[in-house]
Amino acid sequence: MKNIFKYSLFLSFALALASCEKFLDIEPTGNSIFIEERGDTIFRTANEAEAALSAVYGDFQNEYWQLDWLVNGDAQSDDAYAGADNPSNFQIDDYRIVATNSNVSRDWAYLYQTIGKANLLINNVEVTPDASFSEQRKKEIKGEASFVRAVMYFEAVQLWGDVPLQLKEVTSVSAAELDEIYPQLYPERKPMAEVYEQIIADLEYALANVKTTQPHKGFATKGAANAYLAKVYATIEPKDYNKVVEYCDAVIAGGYSLLPEFDMLWNNENENSPESIFEVNYAGTASDANWGSSMFRGTDWKKFNIPSNDLVKAFDDENDMIRKNASISFEDVTGKWSDANWPANSYPFMNKYRIITWPSPQNYILVRLADIILLKAEALNELGDVNGAAQLVNQIRGRADLPDTQASTQEAMRLAIEKERRLELAFEGKRWFDLKRTGRAIEVINNAIGPDGNKFGYNLTQNGLLWPIPQSELDKNELLTQNPGY
C-alpha cells in the first residue's frame, strides 16, 4: 500500500506538470532538474551551451559559497565562534546540529542544484548540432562542468559521508517512464568510496580536457583539477600520499608562485594573482557583487565567524604577527553589543575579506598555492621524508618572517604542519576539514581554550563528524537513511 501511494503521488505530480511530457524552467526538485526537451538535443547552439556553463559557474556566487562555506570550515572548527544571532549557526558551532537545521537543508539543496546544472552539460553538450561548435570546445565545456560537479560532490561527501550520486537529469515525465525516473528523482545514498571514485573520474576528465589558462582564476583549469585531485587523495580512505605528491607537484610546476608578502593576498590589489589557483570573481556591480564579505566584518551589527581565543593564542604563541594582522582585525564595539568571549573595546573580526561596502567586488580564493605546498609537505612526511617536508614548511614560514621549524621527527612534523596550515589558511574554510581528514578533530576541538585560558567546553563526538541528512529530504525520499546519532 505504501508503494502504491508513493507512485500515485508521483504520477499525479507528473501529470500535473505536463500532459505533453515537455516543460521548461522548472525549479530543481530533490536532486534533479527538469528541462525542456527539444527533439534529440538539449542545446541547439554553441551559445546555449556556453550560457548553461555560465549558469554552472554562477552558482559559485550563491549563499553556499558566499557565506556557508566559511561557516562550515571555520565556525565548525576551533578557529571561530558562530557570532551573530543565527540559531542554525550556533548548532554548527556547538556540535549539536539537528536534522531540521536550516543551513544543513539549504546547503544540500545548493550543492545538488549545481550538480543538476552540471549534469545537463556533461550528458548533452557533445551532441549539440551547431556546425560552428568545435568538438574541442564541447570537450572543454564538458570538462569544466565535470570539474564543478566534482567540487560539489567533494563538499557533499565531506559534510554528510554517504550521499546520493546523481549523474543524470530528468528531461521528461510520463507514466511509461515511471520506474526509470523515480530512482533519479529520489535516489539512495551511495558509499563514500563510490562517491570518491566518481569525483576522481570527473577530475581526471577535467584534467585531460580543460584549458591550462583562462581569462581569470574563476574557471576550471588543469592546475585547479590537479589541486583538487591532490586534496581528494589526501582525504579518501585509505589515503594515497604518492598520488598527493604527484598532483601537488603538477600544481607547483604549473606556473604558480607565492606572492612575496602574505598581506598582498588580502589587500584587494592582487586579485587572480599568481598564487591563486581557483577563485570566485565578483565585478562589484549590483548584479555581480559579493554580499558575503559584509557578513563577517563591520560594526553595524554583530557578525558571523568571530575569531576564537584559541586561534589568537596560536598566532601569539608562534609570534606570527604578519599573518595574525592580515587575518584578524580588532575594533572597539563598545555600546554596540556584548560578547561572552571578547571585551567590547578589543573585539576581533575576520580580516581577509575587507571590502564590505555594497556592491562589493570582494573575491574569494578557494584554493591557492600555499595550501598545496603544505599539503605536499604533509604527504612527504607521511611517506617518511621529514626533511623534504621541513623544506616546504620553511618556505611558507619564511614569507611570514618566521624561523625554520624545529620539528625533526615524523610525529613532531605532523603537528608542525597542522599548525602551519591553521595559521596560513585561517578563515579560508579549511580548518574543520583538515582536522577531520587527519583524524584529529575530536582531540583538538575538545581541548580548545576559551577566554579564561581553560577548556572552552566543546563536546565533539564521533557522530558529530558528519552532518545529519536534512529531514526535508528524508520526508520525501524513503530510500534515504539518517546518519548515526541524529
Automatic annotation (TrEMBL):
Transmembrane segments: none annotated. It is found in: Cell outer membrane. Keywords: Cell outer membrane, Membrane, Signal. Residues 350-486 form the RagB/SusD domain. GO terms for cellular component: cell outer membrane. Residues 74-233 form the SusD-like N-terminal domain. Residues 1-18 form the signal peptide. InterPro entries: SusD-like_N, SusD_RagB_dom, TPR-like_helical_dom_sf. SUPFAM superfamilies: TPR-like. Belongs to the SusD family. This is RagB/SusD domain-containing protein. It comes from Lentimicrobium saccharophilum.
